[in-house]
## 1
Amino acid sequence: MKQSNRRAVISGTVCLMVICFVVTLTVAGTRFIFKDKIAAQEWQNTEQSMNRILKADSYENLSTDDEEKAYAALDRNGEILGYIFITEAYGYGSMISVMSGISAGEVMGIEILDCTNETPGLGQNVAEVSFKNQFSGLTSNPEVTKTEKKTADQVEAVTGATKSSVAVAEAVGIALSRYQEHVDSVVK
């Protein structure tokens, strides 16, 4: 290889590295500058989702770590209306994140927060209203069935997406368990 070719490759590589560094620094700097606005927007989106499943005047964070997210739904007098838990379970291709609203031991509703890595047109259909509505009113761990549901604790799987449907049911079951653990710890 000639000296001029080697120099051209090295200068091109250095130039590309400098460009990548500057772009990365710019993106990181922008994120740092707007972190408070980003956090406020994320909280607003979370609050909107919570309001769809368990209406309240405010939500108090009960989480002790980043892994588990739990909130108390409060009325304007500070009385607890219920609890909201964000749980996950593995579906067909990824973790599915579910927000469950529970009051007096009963699921008030759920929101699918993330199922984007599930199969489009199949697994992602767990976010459809008709599937999510099946969880309202449940008081025990849901059982997924491929046929028409026969008992109150059953939910009918999304056609062609049994693993994704089971993952949502598992996430709701985890939320019901966490609710019971929380209620038991408060009563003691």
## 2
Amino acid sequence: MSDDSTTDHQDPERLFSALWAAHAHRILAYAQRHVGPDLADEVVAETFLVAWRRLADVPGEALPWLLVVARNTVANQRRSGFRRRAVSQELARIVHLVETHPSAETSALERQTVLRALATLSPREREALLLVSWDGLAPGAAAQVAGCSPSAFAMRLSRARTRLRHASAADAPPPDEPVDHSLELQDGRA
């Protein structure tokens, strides 16, 4: 919020609070029109997080600037939703392929355990694991495909592998328990 008041420049919390008080309800109304009440709070939170991080860039006429940030946030959410649906569809396809054409060297129990564990990962973690394990990409190339830095990708891949190991171990039924071949995919968040 650009103005000549030195007090506001010295007190970013007060400046941000005033920004919130003046415009949060308008951003919420905008978000509810575009994403509905379930996701509107997330749009508002993300919009004001950007405003906090870029407080020096917020112009004196803040509402249009905040609405542009909210519009971009809505667009990002839509792209993320599309990617989540695409990953879920791809996982469903993979499950179908595995169940239709079982591998000779992999038992049905192991397949089911791995697929269930894979389904518990967040979409970003699943993508990281599949880019490296399924698509055969090196971590650097996979980071480029995932649209993140190599270090962020390495962390994502490490978390995915750890969570997959824990989920696989926790999901394995006792040896005498019959195997249920129905697998329901779970849609996790990043």
